[in-house]
Amino acid sequence: MNKKILVIEDEVQICSNIQQILSFSDFNAITANNGLEGLRLAKTEQPDLICCDVMMPELDGYGVLTALRQDPVTESIPVIFLTAKVDRGDLRQGMELGADDYLTKPFSTEELLKAIKVRLERVEKPTLIKQQYEQEHQKNTKLKQQIEINSQKLQESQHLAEICNEVIQKLLQDLGNPLSNINIAIYMLKKAQSDVERDRYLSILQQEYAREMMFLNEMKNLQTLLTPENAKILQSFNVFNNNK
């Protein structure tokens, strides 16, 4: 988008010449032939830069500059004074009011364009730095969020590993209990003196064998069962407590 330049100049021919120079240089040039009109356009158009004549009727360049700097809408717009006066006191007055530069009439096209370019670059540089800072800040914020997410995932993984260890220890204990009962039942079966006793211990063997197979199947399904969500649910119901 072309930069918008407001030219405030009461000499119509000079104003027209400056407008043509700026238009040929790809600027969007708007003009005013007195200070009051220029001040109105500055507020409504909010140009990127203002070139303002100093000596004008009704409201001179100093009055325009004073009004611009007192309005939050226009206070930061760069202003280049155009003047035929080269008195040191006049220059100092303009600078104290907040003028950004002076061009002494007559000035060349190159002088005008260079002065405008320098002022616009000084405005754009802090803006660019601010944009770069905001981009870096956004990147850092996203990186921090990703680190927090990864940290949370790591904690969940560690917690899940602890739960898995609890389950394995519980299943190992549960696997050992039927084996002990089976061993005892086999011993008692050998000592049985009657059919009733033998049937009793055979029944125990069948029950403990069924328990052992159940626990083995649980081991096979362990990987599918222990998702982080299921592990939290199981733990909330004390499924992993080593109750005998």
UniProtKB/TrEMBL annotation:
<dbReference type="InterPro" id="IPR039420">
    <property type="entry name" value="WalR-like"/>
</dbReference>
<feature type="domain" description="Response regulatory">
    <location>
        <begin position="4"/>
        <end position="120"/>
    </location>
</feature>
<keyword id="KW-0804">Transcription</keyword>
<dbReference type="GO" id="GO:0000156">
    <property type="term" value="F:phosphorelay response regulator activity"/>
</dbReference>
<dbReference type="GO" id="GO:0006355">
    <property type="term" value="P:regulation of DNA-templated transcription"/>
</dbReference>
<dbReference type="InterPro" id="IPR011006">
    <property type="entry name" value="CheY-like_superfamily"/>
</dbReference>
<feature type="modified residue" description="4-aspartylphosphate">
    <location>
        <position position="53"/>
    </location>
</feature>
<dbReference type="Pfam" id="PF00072">
    <property type="entry name" value="Response_reg"/>
</dbReference>
<keyword id="KW-0597">Phosphoprotein</keyword>
<dbReference type="InterPro" id="IPR001789">
    <property type="entry name" value="Sig_transdc_resp-reg_receiver"/>
</dbReference>
<dbReference type="GO" id="GO:0000976">
    <property type="term" value="F:transcription cis-regulatory region binding"/>
</dbReference>
<protein>
    <submittedName>
        <fullName>Response regulator</fullName>
    </submittedName>
</protein>
<keyword id="KW-0238">DNA-binding</keyword>
<dbReference type="GO" id="GO:0005829">
    <property type="term" value="C:cytosol"/>
</dbReference>
<dbReference type="GO" id="GO:0032993">
    <property type="term" value="C:protein-DNA complex"/>
</dbReference>
<keyword id="KW-0805">Transcription regulation</keyword>
